[in-house]
Amino acid sequence: MNRTTISIPDDILDRLRQIAAERRTSMATLVREALEEKVSMYRPVPRSFGVGASGQADTARRSATERPDPRAWR
């Protein structure tokens, strides 16, 4: 396990101390639990690597105003 230093606003530190006292645990344990919870919710954003990229930045905006003419059924 590694040690690190973090900066915490005073109001959060006060609440952290209070919660640790109520739960009879250390502040370090609470911080590790909170970090674990946050990390477990992380889902990486899938990357497309430009596959199918048109190279146009305004495609969505233009498609709303430029509708193609409907094709005939036959």
The quaternary structure here is single chain
Outline the low-pLDDT stretches.
none
Give the overall shape.
rod-shaped
> What's the Cα radius of gyration?
26 Å
Describe the protein.
Helix 1 (10-23) crosses helix 2 (27-40). The chain contains three helices and no strands. It has 74 residues and is mainly α. The chain is rod-shaped. It has a domain at 8-41.
Give the SSE map.
Blueprint: H1 10-23, H2 27-40, H3 59-65
Write a brief caption for the model.
By secondary structure, this protein is mainly alpha-helical.
Observed structural traits:
mainly alpha, 47% helix, single chain, 74 residues, rod-shaped
